[in-house]
């Protein structure tokens, strides 16, 4: 509550965007991409929490519309996001996923999430948890040792801090690409509590 009040004062009493109403300090965010509702494909690449720093960078551009967000074809479309970090928290809102949503790889290890009806999985270094069912849509995320689906803990015991380094790609996990639609991607530079992770998930679902 104190953080929300402080942020409101800094903005001169103006209404806060939804992502600053979750109880997470502005300085804790690394990136927030909001392709859903963006004014254009070019505007969708902007890191709204810190424009110009870690704006999404092109590999091959996805298609886009304001309702679905980024639409990846699963063949060659991918975006570069932010550098991975050992205690990074990541959440993604998506629909129509057929596999890898985001991630990176180094030294034989992986960090990221894949989601489909067959083999949804959280990847954290060499620790893979795939014992959960994903509907192919919703909000998935990882923070510390836990994996979340729509605000619920569906995985525990993930490697934390993880030891993978590199740049996180959206639309792919290393060389594994998959078709999906991405509406929101958030990266936070610390591990969240379960309550904080639930608040982020619920806010992303409602956005």
Write the layout of secondary structure elements.
Layout: H1 2-10, E1 29-33, H2 41-44, E2 57-60, E3 63-65, E4 69-73, E5 78-83, E6 89-95, E7 99-106, E8 109-115, E9 121-125, E10 127-129, E11 138-143, E12 146-149, E13 152-155, E14 167-170, E15 172-173, E16 176-177, E17 179-188, H3 194-206
Antiparallel strand pairs: 1-17, 2-5, 3-4, 4-17, 5-14, 6-11, 6-17, 7-8, 7-14, 8-9, 9-10, 11-12, 12-13, 15-16
Please supply descriptive tags for the structure shown above.
mainly beta, globular, 17 strands, 207 residues, 3 helices, Jelly Rolls, eight-stranded antiparallel β-sheet, single chain, seven-stranded antiparallel β-sheet
Characterization of this structure:
- Strand 11 and strand 12 (146-149) form a beta hairpin.
- The strands form 3 sheets. Strands 1, 3, 4, 6, 11, 12, 13 and 17 form an 8-stranded antiparallel beta sheet that branches. A 7-stranded antiparallel beta sheet has the order 2-5-14-7-8-9-10, with no helix packed on it. A two-stranded antiparallel ribbon has the order 15-16.
- The chain contains 3 helices and 17 strands.
- The protein has helices spanning 2-10, 41-44, 194-206; strands spanning 29-33, 57-60, 63-65, 69-73, 78-83, 89-95, 99-106, 109-115, 121-125, 127-129, 138-143, 146-149, 152-155, 167-170, 172-173, 176-177, 179-188.
- It has one domain: Jelly Rolls.
- With 207 residues, the chain is mainly beta.
- The two termini are 20 Å apart.
């Amino acid at each position: 509550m104190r953080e929300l009040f402080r942020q409101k004062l800094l903005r001169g009493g103006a209404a806060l965007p939804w992502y600053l109403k979750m109880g997470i300090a502005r300085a804790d965010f690394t990136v927030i991409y909001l392709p859903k509702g963006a004014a254009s494909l070019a505007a969708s690449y902007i890191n709204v929490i810190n424009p110009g720093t870690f704006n999404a960078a092109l590999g091959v551009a996805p298609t886009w519309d304001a309702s679905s967000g980024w639409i990846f074809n699963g063949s060659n479309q991918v975006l570069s996001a932010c550098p991975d970090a050992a205690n990074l928290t990541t959440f993604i809102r998506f629909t129509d996923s057929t596999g890898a949503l985001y991630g990176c790889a180094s030294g034989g290890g992986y960090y990221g999430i894949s989601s489909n009806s067959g083999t949804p999985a959280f990847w954290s270094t060499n620790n893979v948890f795939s014992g959960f069912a994903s509907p192919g849509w919703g909000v998935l995320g990882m923070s510390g040792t836990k994996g979340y689906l729509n605000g619920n803990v569906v995985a525990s015991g993930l490697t934390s801090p993880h030891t993978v380094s590199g740049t996180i790609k959206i639309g792919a996990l290393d060389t594994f690409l998959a078709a999906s639609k991405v509406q929101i991607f958030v990266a936070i530079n610390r591990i969240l509590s379960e309550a904080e992770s639930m608040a982020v998930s619920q806010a992303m679902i409602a956005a």
